[in-house]
Amino acid sequence: MNRNILIVAGITLFLDQITKAFIPMYLKLNEEFVLIKDFFSIHYIQNYGAAWNILNNKIPMIIILSFIALILLYHFMYTFKPCARNNLAFGMAVGGIVGNLMDRWLFGYVRDFLDFQIFHYDYPVFNIADIGVVIGICLLIYAVMKGEDHYEKMDRLPK
Questions:
Q1: Is 38 annotated in the active site?
Q2: Catalytic residue (choose from 16, 103, 112, 115)
Q3: Would you kindly state where each structural domain of the chain is located, as residue ranges?
Q4: Which of 9, 54, 132, 153 could connect to 92 by a Cys-Cys bridge, CB 3.0–4.6 Å?
Q5: Residue 112 annotated among the catalytic residues of the structure
């Protein structure tokens, strides 16, 4: 695996786990600290499902799906064109998946705390790992749109 991908994954995982460790020190479960009224708050919850609470209380299934996602990402790391943006994408996605996977494995839920309201819509509460997954996957979709998903190494010089 590319060293740069590992570095980005490690940073994403570290930021995710350190923020998840600090939140319960300052907030009780379901407690909210408003930073910007009607826009942004820190709201500590325990999520027993996946995005938008799908697969609620299906932790073993989500863990299996997380491992499948990691295997697929590992495979695609070697087919995508190697560049800084793709390294960032794979690193953020892997770090995010591992961060939430660790929560599910250790606690049986994911610790979420970032809560945004935009135009009176209260988005689902999320965490740093979720940000990593979303940004990583969006960057990979962009790479696919640019045709960077099929990269062949040149083992020899052209004749």
A1: no
A2: 112
A3: 3-24+36-45+57-145
A4: 132
A5: yes
